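Morning run. Coffee first, then this:
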Amino acid sequence: MPVFNCATYVRHAIESILAQTMDDFEFIIVNDGSTDGTQDIVNDYAGRDKRIRLLRNRENRGVAASLNGVLAECTGEFIARQDGDDFCTPDRLETQVDFLRVHGSVGVCGTWATLIEIDTPCVMLGSPEVQWRPPVEPKFIQAHLLFRNVLKHSSVVIRRSAFKASGLYYDVSLPHVEDYELWTRMSTKCDIVNLPKRLLSRRYHHAQVCQRHRAVMLASARQIRLRQLRTMGLEPDEREFALHVAISRMRFTPSEDILRRTDRWLQHLREQNRRQRIYDHEAFSAVLASKLESVRARVGAGAV
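And here it is:
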């Protein structure tokens, strides 16, 4: 759990981990250069529970660098993630670890989640509370990743051997979307799933990364999408890539022209995948069809 200036929420986050029904774990908390009262709070909990191990960065290094440091310290079979402003149900770890022990091909196990808007309107939610139900099967998750991240980083449990066998670490060159980038690589090496259970509550508020560094986050996500298109053997021109990003984010001015262009682009992706065989054909086709239907619905609503 990397924490940075989250004194308002970190007690709830820590307590939700300490209350887990599975109690045999090492709880590593990294204070990433906090300047508020976060360090005093984590010190207090560490003094009362021997499962907590504290690390501290002298200055703020960011989530990716902090987690890479933790990966070098971890010795357990599984690595669970949670942010300092989120909280989980008491059975979260037990549920995910039990699943991973039964399903050896799965390297990353996320969950459904409740998304909570705290103190400021969040364009990602659209309402104060949303039940987030991303795809659950590996082949659909991999296909969706071409467009967007469909795992909540704070919900995942990762098989440590899936990291070590492939020499994988978080890419610090893509700040604020390091998890999205990692999933695109891991999905080619192991199965990634989301359990259809809401085991995490994810807070959205003005002080967190996705609000403070939104422009950088969006730019990094564009690079990840472009990398994946190039892996498919595609080199989209500026207009094609702008369309792909617009479809991925569902941010565009509705029009019949955007619908026609989307249909052509998605057909192009389908045919390229048929040749390259990057994604499961049926799953990929289903994801593309769902994207086209979403654009069609947006255009239809805009015409009313």
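The domain at 2-212 is CATH 3.90.550.10 (Spore Coat Polysaccharide Biosynthesis Protein SpsA; Chain A). Good start to the day.
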